[in-house]
Design a protein that fits this description.
The complex is a heterodimer of chains A (about 260) and B (about 250). Chain A has 10 helices and 10 strands. With about 260 residues, chain A is of the alpha/beta class. In chain B, helix 6 packs antiparallel against helix 8 and helix 9 packs antiparallel against helix 10.
Chain lengths: ~260, ~250
């Protein structure tokens, strides 16, 4: 059975003065099996984040619905956690890293057990010993690791990632991508990632859904077909990788399809 | 090091005091209006060394603290409710806008009609003046909480109560404390004023009483005590504020 279904999702905003509503997105339909790593690729401003927020129950769709395990999403579903692009705005600056990770479970388990588990989560993202540091004492990449540890502490079945690596430097991005792949494989998560970064989508995903410009809908869905485990260097040099990159860049830059 | 940065400013104060001493001595200022600072200092020392200063000081302090905490609690509570709930905002916004512009000192006479001249009236007037800056700042702080942060709470399944206590209030704390700092000064003003208008004791009452009985050295001595009290309260608050907002040094 499909784990995650997007059924003709659409979003539009009413305009003032009786003008027709601004259509951001329409008829987005996708089926994601359990354990898949799906990337949604699109140019800036095509409503990728809005799509992800509808799946996360943070925004209500104007039409259609998203279903997780057959249940329609209405409000944030317990199976899913949203990983924000803006780690510096989603972490609490008055809490140290341990308490920021405890954020994920403290309201269910209580503060103490949540804290006790937090150090282990930090170790899993390579931040062992940073429990007492505050987010503003860490680099951007390390802050995003804290945010990842927090998301994982909630033990989600579905991880929703909103351009999570776009605000860190290029080297850190590559390291974090490998970290996410590790965690995904180990925990058998289902991941939905939205990104405008073609290489990131190819490197990480099993399938890539390409969004068209506004009103966006899914233009095509591509099987990546690169072997796993993927390697930060070798995978990026594989002929299939380069072929996909060529095709996708052509599409996004709206040149003639190769 | 802190002392060294303070020194030039302290020097200016010392010079002014020395000048006043000289000016009174030389007959440039009438002794009847301003006794030489050394004479005031003598009275001040007497008040301090005999402990006579303590009861009036504590009496004023009681008004300031009681009103400050009551007003802050009301301001934070109502401001948070109005910031979180549009219904609460619509319900209370007109009332707040109506009472807010009234100089609260003007409310002391009508308050005396209802509450008499005891502490109840004085604490109420201090509470009133404290409430509004705290309320408005709380409202602004609560409304300004980052949407991404709030979404993080939602995606992790935080309930409203947990989000309020562990996210919205801490995030709004810099605004709340800034409002409270303004209110602390206003609390002193209203405490002293209501003591002057309905006095049986306290620093405000004494300052007015000494002026009326031409005991000017006493009047100035109490004034100095009041000034030092204000300075102390503000410094303690600033220190506590800096501690509470340690995470803002980014």
């Amino acid at each position: 059975m499909a784990f995650l279904e997007l059924d003709a999702l659409g979003k539009f905003y009413p305009q003032p003065g009786g003008a027709p509503p601004a259509r951001i997105m329409e008829r987005v339909s996708l089926t994601v099996p359990e354990g898949e790593f799906l990337a949604v690729l699109g140019p800036s401003g095509c409503g990728k984040s809005t799509l992800l927020q509808m799946v996360a129950g943070l925004t209500t769709p104007s039409e259609g619905e998203a279903r997780i395990n057959g249940r329609a999403v209405a409000g944030p579903p317990p199976e899913a956690v949203y990983l924000f692009q803006q780690y510096n705005r989603s972490l609490l600056p008055w809490r140290n890293c341990r308490d920021n990770v405890a954020f994920a479970t403290e309201h269910r388990l209580g503060r103490k057990p949540a804290r006790a588990a937090a150090d282990e989560q930090l170790a899993q993202v390579g931040l062992a010993g940073f429990g007492d540091h505050y987010p503003w004492q860490l680099s951007g990449g390390m802050q995003q690791r804290v945010a990842i540890a927090r998301a994982l502490a909630a033990e989600p079945a579905l991880l929703l990632m909103d351009e999570p690596f776009s605000a860190v430097d290029a080297l850190t991005r590559i390291q974090l991508q490998s970290l996410i792949l590790d965690i995904w494989a180990r925990r058998k998560l289902t991941v939905m990632l939205v990104t405008h970064d073609v290489e990131e989508a190819i490197f990480l995903a099993d399938r890539i859904a390409v969004l068209t410009p506004r009103p966006s809908t899914i233009g095509e869905v591509i099987e990546v077909g690169l072997p796993r485990p993927r390697d930060a260097i070798a995978t990026r040099e594989a002929p299939r990788f380069l072929e996909l990159r060529h095709h996708l860049l052509n599409r996004l830059l709206a040149r003639d399809a190769a | 090091m802190r002392l060294r940065t303070l020194l030039p400013g302290l020097f200016v104060v010392a010079m002014i005091i020395a000048f006043l001493e000289f000016a009174v001595d030389a007959g440039m200022i009438r002794r009847a209006l301003l006794p030489p600072p050394s004479a005031t200092a003598e009275v001040l020392w007497e008040l301090l060394s005999t402990g006579e200063f303590l009861p009036p000081l504590l009496s004023t302090l009681k008004l300031v603290f009681a009103g400050f905490f009551l007003g802050s609690a009301i301001g934070i509570g109502l401001g948070t409710a109005m910031g979180v709930s549009p219904a609460m905002y619509r319900l209370f916004e007109p009332l707040v806008e109506l009472i807010r512009p009234i100089p609260k000192s003007a409310l002391v006479p009508p308050l005396m009609l209802f509450l008499g001249i005891d502490d109840a009236m004085k604490i109420t007037s201090v509470t009133l003046v404290v409430t509004f800056p705290v309320l408005l700042n709380t409202l602004q702080g609560v409304r300004g909480v980052d949407r991404v942060m709030l979404d993080a709470a939602r995606t992790h399944g935080w309930g409203l109560g947990h989000t309020l206590w562990h996210m919205i209030l801490p995030a709004a704390l810099p605004f709340i404390l800034a409002g409270m700092r303004v209110s602390l000064g206003l609390a002193m003003v209203l405490a002293v004023l209501s003591e002057m208008l309905a006095g049986q004791g306290g620093l405000g009452f004494l300052i007015l009483d000494m002026q009326r009985s031409f005991q000017l050295r006493q009047m100035y001595a109490w004034l100095v005590i009041l000034a030092v009290l204000g300075l102390l309260l503000n410094s303690i608050f600033l220190l506590a504020e800096r501690r509470a907002l340690f995470w803002q040094r980014r």
